[in-house]
Specification:
It is a single chain. The chain is mainly alpha-helical. It contains 6 helices and no strands. The longest helix has 23 residues.
Length: about 140
């Protein structure tokens, strides 16, 4: 399937922090559902939720992310260093990004990766809650 260039160019990522929090909550709910189903999908939704929460917090803090994963990783570190987040989630962000690619692009089995998606969901729940509190 070929994607329309106008559709690709239309997405600029400029969504309000409050809207990003709602997106993070929706993605988190899907991740939580998949904990009882396909853990590969739980990884994907957990990653998407974490990214949306980082986007919301970074926007509020004036940290540019420019829709780039590596800038979100840096933003997670900065958000911790400035006291917005109680822990540095840059490693979790990188790990989820790597794992989702390994699962979906390379067919890796999540159990073989030695990763607890349940723990990741708990960590992301906390970030989404912080983003929600700060956006309201």
């Amino acid at each position: 399937m070929r994607r329309s260039r106008s559709r690709v160019n239309a997405y600029d990522g400029l969504v309000s922090p409050k809207a990003k929090v709602e997106i993070a909550k929706e993605h988190l709910a899907k991740a939580q559902e998949e904990l009882n189903g396909d853990h590969r999908d739980a990884v994907q939704w957990t990653f998407a939720s974490l990214e949306a929460a980082i986007d919301a917090l970074a926007a509020e803090a004036g940290i540019p992310i420019d829709q780039q994963h590596w800038k979100r990783t840096d933003a997670a570190k900065q958000l911790h260093q400035t006291g917005v987040l109680p822990s540095d989630l840059s490693e979790l962000h990188s790990e989820l990004n790597f794992l989702r690619k390994a699962i979906f692009y390379d067919g890796e089995d999540i159990e073989e990766a030695g990763f607890s998606v349940e723990d990741a969901v708990v960590d992301v729940e906390a970030v989404v809650e912080i983003a929600s509190e700060r956006a309201s």
